[in-house]
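Please review this one:
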Amino acid sequence: MGKTKRKWIQLDFSNADALRAEDIPFDATQDIKTKIDSLGGSRAMPGLLVGGTDNQWGYACPEVSTTTAMGDMGLLASLAYQDSSSSVSSQSDGLVFRQASSGIDAEIFQAGNLHTWENNLYTVGRIGLQSVTDGYWYGFCSGVDPSKNDTILSSGAGIHFRPSRDTNFQFLVSDGFTQNLYDMGVAPVNGTTYIFVLDLHRDNTSFTATIYDKDFQTSLGTQTVTTTLPALSNTTRLRHETEGSTLDTYYMYLVTRDQ
């Protein structure tokens, strides 16, 4: 790519000849810096969070050493699980943690409610929905089992689907008293992998939900909400959760940030 040949990687900016992102190919046509710049300030891609000032972060992903839990750290450390069976397998799209259960009893959740609306919360989850017959949830909630109920009756924000109520995924926002649903325009399909992104950006008083295709290339549907949000001073504690019938979880990221 016409870059100066450099012989070392340096972890600070004290030497201009150290290896930089623009020296490393992303693919046959562009370098890593060009790819990052093209994503903009609020996009994320697997293994890379871009934009804002990250305060804390965490992730969860499958591990070959165990079939009953995922590897986790940071804000997503010490996750809890509920399912009738679980396994780890290598699929064409990567390593996956599969949970199977009758009804809506496949869950990955934080054992405690750890977050408040005073944080700017940003999460990305790549989830394969083998069955959406009984419903699905990806997001934050102060209550339990949000995918089992048409009305969650607690504070929360997330991507919700109830087959008795919905044709498409819904972006649900609730302050614990009033619940509002916003149609994502994406009908869930059994056996399909989606990437769910929630950008709960309190500094701009807006919550945004986006559903991408499994390759994080195409936005299938998005909704931004600026009204009936929980009050900024709300100290209700929330937990991060994904819940459904049969789930394939490739990864989940969670970031709190200043902007």
Q: What stands out?
A: The two ends are 34 Å apart (CA to CA). The mean pLDDT is 81. The chain has two domains: 1-39, 51-257.
